[in-house]
Amino acid sequence: MRVIIVSRIYRPEPSAASLFLGSVSDALTAGGHEVEVLTAKPLPGQGEASRGERVRTFPVLRDANGYVRGYVQYMSFDLPLAFRLLFARRPAAVFVEPPPTTGAVVRVVCALRRIPYVYDAADIWSDAAGQATDSRAVVRVLRWIERFALRGAAELVTISDGVVERLRQLGVSSPVEVTGFGADTTEFKYREAPTERLFIYAGTYTGLHGADILIEAFARFTETHPGYRLRFIGNGTEQERMRARADALGLGSAVEFAPPVPPAELAPQLARSVASLATLQPGGGYEYAFTSKAYSSLAAGCPVIFAGPGPTGPFLRDAARAVPAGAAVAYDADAIADAMRAAADAPLSGADRARVSEWTAAHHSMRAVAERVAARIAAVATRGGSAR
Fold it and tell me: For 349-367, what is each residue's pLDDT tens digit?
C-alpha cells in the first residue's frame, strides 16, 4: 500500500521525532509498502534523508536556531502542505506528526479526499503551551485545534497510558494504541571509551522541562567535586537565562551550551559521560509526560539521573532492578547534586555500560516501536474509509 508521512521535521535533522519517523518509514518499506514523506527542506550539509522512501521537501521559515518552531514557522509549513497533500497521488493512509496545526490541515484535506489518517499523539501540545504562555486565549485556540486534529484521526498512537488518560479527559474518543517509545539502537549503542568528568543534558530545554535547576545543582555539586563539566546539547527558550545564571554562580566554562548534533555524534559523548540528566517541571499539568531522552542515553550505556514527576522515575527504578540504569530523585537542587556525587564517586565500568546498552536494545529499541506503529498504519490503510 501507499502511505504518506507528514511532518515538519524528518531525518537528517537531529531530533527524537526525526529518528522515530525515519524508523516508521523503514518499517513500512520493509513491509513492502510505498512511502512518501512530505516535510521541510533541511538545513544545508545535514546529509541524506532517504533510505528507500521518497522524500519531498519544501522551503520553510526557521527560527534563529534553525528550527521550524513557532506559529509563523508552523504556518510556513502548513499552508503549502494543504496544497501538497491535496494534489499528491492518493495514499491508502496518512501518518501525521504534530504540531496540531499540521494535524488540522491533514484532517481537512483527508476529509475532502476520504483518506484515513493516523495521528502521533506522543504529547499534548496545548498542555505544554499552558506552561509557555500566560495567554488563556492562545491556549484555548490551540486546545480547539488540537482536539479537532485528534478527533478526526482514524487512530492515534502514543507512548504511555498516561497520555491516553489525558486524551480521554480532553474528550478525545478516537481509538488509541499505546506503542511506547524507544531508542534508535543502530545509532545509540555503547562504544568503549574512557569516562570523562562530564554530565550531559541532551534535548530541548524550556520552562516546561525545568532544566534550569540543573545549573543550581551543578554549582552545589562542584563545591565538593571541582573539575567537572555540564554540557547542554540542544536548544531551548531558557538558554540565555541559564547561561546568565551559570555566569552569576561563577561556573564559567564549566557549563557548556552546544547545538543539536546527529545521533552518530551524540552517542559517543553519552558513552563518555558519568551520567545524563533529565528533568520535568512539577506542578505544570504535564506530569503524565515521559522523558524519552532516557532511552537514548541508556542505549548508549550512559546511566540517567532524572528529577521530577511523571512515569520516567518509575521506569528508571524498574530498570535499575535489572541493570545500573541511574537514579530518579526529587525536583530539588540538593537531591540532584547528591545523585551526581554518587554517580561521580562510583562511575560505571565499561562492562556495566555494555550491559545497560544491551538491556535497552533488547527491551526498548525504536525499531520494535516503529514496527508496532507501522502495523497500526497498515491496519488503518487496510480498513480504508475517510477522516471523520
Answer: 999 999 999 999 999 999 9
